[in-house]
Amino acid sequence: MAGVGHCYLVIHVSGFFLVDTGSPGHFQSIARRIHSHGLDLRNLQFIFLTHTHYDHAGNAFLLKEASGAPIIVHESESDMLKQGTHPVPNGTNLVFKIISFLGQRFSKSHASFKAANPDIVFQTAYSAKDLGAEALIVHTPGHTLGSSSLIFEGNLFAGDSLFNAAGMVWPPFANDEARLLETWKYFDTLPITTCYPAHGKRMGKEVLTKALKKRGQKGRVKLNRAKLRGQSHGRLPTDLEM
Ligand SMILES: [Zn+2]
Question: Which of 21, 135, 138, 193 is the most buried (most CB within 10 A)?
Fold first, then answer.
């Protein structure tokens, strides 16, 4: 739903809730979509924001106002939600590093949205049981410091901690790739079957496991190179140099 990224409406036996709210300007289409399922927006259980980039928090204010539902967000994203702005994230590959650099220099206004007050902030984890859903929200940093994910009935809603478009699973933007890798290792331990990234199609957990293995191998190659370097007193055989 909405904008270039997905926000997810999760309908279950005892209610419904939202994961993210899309880019600014999509409030009406989200409200229409909710009504099209025969649901009354005023019964929305909660709005969980995986983080506060504009394409996730863009309609949080209006959706909260219309529904009265509480907004849940990690504490380190809370100020950005209140201010309605965020720093442009770092790119993880050459193309996105350039996009990030240009965004940081010239397009700061793009990273803004209508500010909202959070209702529930958490540090490590939050159970939405009291709000009527057996959903667990966990802090999964890396893409941003406060990025978080929601686990519900074997499904993982990972925001921008996962990606599944243009042949990429590793997100094109991440402020801390080492922490993101730790987050991925955590994802791999979860009893889930399906992952829902905010950009691209849903995917089976095996796609994540495979991509994680690939990244692990990259890590090992680097480690071996470093080891070789040490053994050869700072000189690598020519065929290993890149
Ligand atoms: Zn993001």
Answer: 21
C-alpha 53 – ligand 1 centre gap (Å): 5
Residue 156's domain comprises: 8-240
For residue 185, how far is its CA from the centre of ligand 1 (angstroms)? 20
Does 1 map to a domain? no
Find residue 173's DSSP bridge partners.
91
- 194: β partners: 155, 204
Please check whether residue 211 lies inside any domain of the structure.
yes
User: Domain of 155: which CATH number?
Assistant: 3.60.15.10
Q: Per-residue pLDDT tens for 119-141?
A: 999 999 999 999 999 999 999 99
In the chain, the number of structural domains is 1
Cα 44 to ligand 1 centre (Å): 24
Does any domain span residue 212? Answer: yes
DSSP secondary structure letters along 113-153: ------SEEESSEEEGGGGT---EEEE--SSSTT-EEEEET
84 Cα to the center of ligand 1, angstroms: 14
Cα atoms in the Cβ-side hemisphere of radius 13 Å centred on 228: 13
Residue 167 lies in a domain: yes
Cα 160 to middle of ligand 1, angstroms: 5
pTM: 0.86
